[in-house]
User: What shape does this take?
Amino acid sequence: MEESGEDLKFEEALTQLEEIVAELEEGELSLEEAVEKFQRGMALKQLCERRLSEAEAKIEEYVPDEESEQEAESLFE
Assistant: This one.
């Protein structure tokens, strides 16, 4: 059963996206079904990208970049 996009965790969205890609690659769908699957796949792709960006932003809060680390080191010299 498909959940609404925003309720999905990254892993769930990625699994659904992989399933859609496999169905589209089989080439067994009608044109209308293929278009619907493609649209759902694009929405899932965007959700995955958004979830990855959010995770990256959280990680960057805790991992200083090289420039800010050098600035911090220069304060103690």
Notes: The domain at 5-75 is CATH 1.10.287 (Helix Hairpins). The CA atoms of residues 5 and 50 lie 11 Å apart.
